[in-house]
Amino acid sequence: MKLLDIALKDMTRHFRSAFGLVMMFVAPLLVTGLIALAFGGLAGDGGFSLPQTRVVVADQDEGGDAGFRAGGLLLDAMNDPDMASYMVVSTAADPAAARQAVELREADVAVIIPPDLSAAVTTHDGSAVVEIVHDPTLTLGPGLVKAVVDGVVDAFNGARIATHVTAAQLAEQGLPGDRVVGQVAMRYAEWVQAQGAERDRGEYAAIAIQPPPGVADDVSLGARIIGTIAVGMVLFFVFFTAASTAESIVREDEEGTLARLFTTPTSRSTILAGKLLAVGLTLIVQTIVLILLARLIFGISWGRPLAVTMVLLGTIVAAAGFGVCVMSFVQNTRQSGPVMGGVLTVSAMLGGLMTTGIPNLPAALTTVTLFTPHGWALHAWKLAMEGAAAGALVAPLLVLLGYGAALFGVGVIRFRRRFA
Amino acid sequence: MRVLDIALKDLLQIVRDRQTILFTIAMPIVFTVFFGLIFRPGGDGSEARLPVGVVDGDAGGALSAVVVEMLEASGAVEPVAVPLDEEGRAADDVARGRLTALLVLPPGFTEAALLGGDPQVRLVTDVADSTGHGARTLIERAVLRALSAARVAQLSAEAAEGVRPFADAAARDAYLRDALRRGVAAWRDVPVEVTMREARVAAEPDSPPAGGFAQSSPGMIVQFSIYGLMTAAGALVLERKVGALQRLLTTPASRAEIVAGKVLAMFVMVFVQQAILVGFGQVAFGVDYMHAPLGTLLVMVALALWATSMGLLIGAVAREQSQVVMYSLVAMFVLASLGGAWFPLEITGRTFATIGHLLPTAWAMDGFQNIVLRGLGLASVVTPVLVLAGYAVVFFGLAVWRLRFE
Amino acid sequence: MSSQAISIRDLHKHFGDIHAVQGISLDVQQGEIFSLLGPNGAGKTTAISILSCLLEPTQGDALVMGHSVTRESAAVRAVIGVVPQDVALYPDLTARENLLFWGKMYGLRGRPLAARVDEVLETIGLTDRQKGRVDTFSGGMKRRVNIGVALLHRPQVIYMDEPTVGIDPQSRRNILDSVKELNRQGMTVLYTTHYMEEAEELSDYIAIMDHGKVIAYGTHPELVRIVGEQDRITLTTSGDYDGLLDRWRRLDGVSRVSTEGEDTVTLLATDGNIILPRVFEEATRAGVRIASVQVQEPNLEAVFLHLTGRALRD
Fold first, then answer.
1. What pTM was estimated for this model as a whole?
2. Model ipTM value
3. How many distinct helices (H) and strands (E) make up chain B?
4. Which of A45, A92, B320, C52 has the greatest number of beta carbons closer than 10 A?
5. What is the per-residue pLDDT for A362?
6. Measured between CB atoms, which of A17, A255, A263 is closest to C54?
């Protein structure tokens, strides 16, 4: 059939060009690999290796009774060998020097221990503030340092509270408390240490951690993270390819071969239909190859076969419609470059394809994504990857088909008006 | 001067192409807003709080109140009350990423903690998920605090018992609960506090953090400087294809003059684009570029130089418009992501962050961020500027070597 | 009627304010080579586009092998072959692939198609380059494939729109010879050009077009007779020749004097040999030096010049 001849001719041209092949297959896999490398490496062990945080401590603590130095204890905790892979600790003479070290980027985090720390811990009315100052571009390293400091400070606070409550209650009863109060502090400290030790061993009894339902344990973490990212990138380049294939209509118009086709006995409808068919067929080949390769290279599990088929179908229809619609507004190939780059990137961004690796996005963004076919495609893929059954995918599939048909319709109408 | 004539002609062609203008100016602005809102929506304190579901089976228990209160007060986590019978749905939400975690406080939690049972809460979370890490730490602290309030009560009762035994179980119980009440109250007003803030030179000590735009604005400037070249490189390729470039060679203009003219045009375009975005960032989002105007200017010049060298290289190597698009887009993706323009390099692994700093884009980000985030001055941009200039020299060399006029 | 390949009746085509074709009427008999001769912008390509069913006429109609271009477009397209002015081929496909594809568009299939492609490749002399990508071909070779595509379905009528523009003399010679050969095999050829020599060499009939109208029509001898077998004298002068032109016009035997540029004058005269001395005399009397002289016996350029006052080639 002439329809098929035209479609196959277009596909031959597209698959022969280096540009076509790069944008269809190489680029999405490359970018996925890169970003996957960013978020935890391909080792798939889930290990998250932060760069070592450089901490500078200014310990001004004047100490308390009987040689008790809270500041020293805090410093010891940070110098603990277990912490060595996460922080490297140095000391500064005074708070100004510590802050300056961070400002000059010689250190990432400054911990400033006030002179009255020990006093606050040991006396009834004392209070103190431990100040942490960090490089504005960092969040995780400082967070870690704060967690360590918090832990020690909480221990101090708890001991103080323990003695305070005990003493207060005893006083109310009219009982002497001096002897026992010191013991209380020690016993509390022991308890806190024991809790800490349990946590460090990973056996904290007070909190039982359960994985969320459906989170497949057999799929490595690396594959799971990469899977989400891969979806975003695959979808971006699928939509790109749709537009790129549809561009052939504009290009042939420029090359003069479209006009020549019109002088043959083949009807214009057939010609147009053949070129549109090429878009669909190219996308089918691209998506199937990409998901197979992604599975092979990155170990991504896409979901149950029927679910995946449905999602593929919806994606192809929606993307084809999108590509055809966008190209119907383009006058010549000089325009099509920036249009493809621009429209595609913006719509991909709005559809959430660039931010798939980031969880807990603002709800507003999630709503916006559902105005784009990209967003719905992403949503459908995520469902499939979570192991959803075919039934759950019926609604997204219908939406995608609807989007695709509508966009396709607009594009076809415009092209017909232009050529037929 | 012929160089100026050539540059002006090129600029005229660029400016005439309205779509280019749209995509070179409008798009970066849109992206800046978008990414700024994603990472830290504004510096007014309304930060993205991670939602954590809480099933309070111990309703009314003093300790569960301690836990929830502490989560609330943290500002980093948003506790979402989940009714008992919706625990399953909430767990699914965790799987879907709609909730960072689900904390289930069992019935009798307070009693168990107080009376020496084995108090145990359940936390449904994906341990491997790095973003949930902060929430988990916070929850652990909150639970520990609750347990410690119970422990304080126990210790006080035991201490009192050591001084004088209680009349009966009821008296002990009353004493215990009183101690718990005091302990809980005391934890609300701790003696030692820990504060954390960003180091910002020349900023008010209490000024709010710079906000997400201080990351996204320079990030988008860096990324789109590459995107802008797509047009410039495309124009070069087109000129070569139609033979106009070759024709230039038949005029008295020398090769050097022609290349210089084109470089000048590209540079002006990228620089103007940057200037508009910097101005926009300063005025609309309060990103403080003008804090060190000379420093900002130097970084802009260095970035424009490097971007121009990239554009020339792409224009020299590409044969077709489609190749220009391909090289530019792939370069943009790679350089922007690895360079820290999309997300801070810190949140990536060690390897990635190291590789990233080999790239010129990371240095450009450093230059800008030293000024807008760290509040540093002119001296801080010297190294980034030198690195960018070095890269520019290398790329120019490659481009001139590969440039064909026909 | 039955022997007419093409019959054009009062054809008009307006593009907004531009009247590209203004009421042309022509007949082309089957088996003829018919040329449309005219400068760029005369409306030749527009006329061909209408006859190829690419454009709808604003007014009027044309019949190709008895089928109306406005109402029976599909039937028309089945019997015509079109060789467009600009090469319209797929540069990234080979010559053979191009021919196979276009053959399919004309309804050929399978073994008959393959055989026909082999024949056409033979005809255009590219059998041993058939596996080469078209974008690696020279201009002349591309044009040959361009023609080949139009021949696949053995059309009864073939339109060739300026097929020899910008190619080397060897390829041009090949194309002109193949046009004659095709015609010998029975094909009707409608050939547009602005090269007078081609029109003279190939055509049975010639129609001269200018500004959308047919300003003259006939065989070569008939057309040349319009200028009355007048010679064409082209002079370049130095100096100001105002006034001189009128004197020349009044010379006995001179029918037309026109200028081209600042220093070129063209005269049409009955006998160049007799007129020339007098032309020189007048020039000397006016103090104008004549730098060069060229005498050209009557041809189509002269006809065009006579009819329009302008040169055929601009």
1. 0.74
2. 0.76
3. 16, 5
4. C52
5. 63
6. A263
